[in-house]
């Protein structure tokens, strides 16, 4: 068994696509109409057959309260690995990304946390 799709719940798929593709740099894999929403997935740059990130609408009644509660508590919804967290932090700051936590050493990793503009905090992490 292996992970092939993981998701992040977003409040607006178009806004999420613009952020995750154009700001973070993920590559579009699928954009398939599914009624009111889309099956909208991205992959890591240079890894088109890797794990897909589904930009999943937060339309379920439980989604918004869940997202709000974990964001209010400062908990990242998910984490992405980076080779150099300090360089990625600077790149994203220059792109206008709002960070809630600058790069911080935490034992075997250094992490930073930003707002994805779609209702989530996202962590980037570098193994030390």
Which descriptors would you attach to this protein?
single chain; 128 residues; alpha/beta; 2,3-Dihydroxybiphenyl 1,2-Dioxygenase, domain 1
Structure description:
The protein is of the alpha/beta class. It has two domains: 1-58, 2,3-Dihydroxybiphenyl 1,2-Dioxygenase, domain 1 (Roll), CATH 3.10.180.10; 68-128, 2,3-Dihydroxybiphenyl 1,2-Dioxygenase, domain 1. The chain is built from three helices and eight strands, in the order βαβββαβαβββ. It has helices spanning 13-23, 63-72, 85-94; strands at residues 5-10, 27-34, 37-43, 52-57, 78-81, 99-106, 109-115, 121-127. The protein has a four-stranded mixed β-sheet, with helices on one face. A hairpin with a 5-residue loop joins β7 and β8. It is globular, with a radius of gyration of 15 Å. It starts with a strand and ends with a strand.
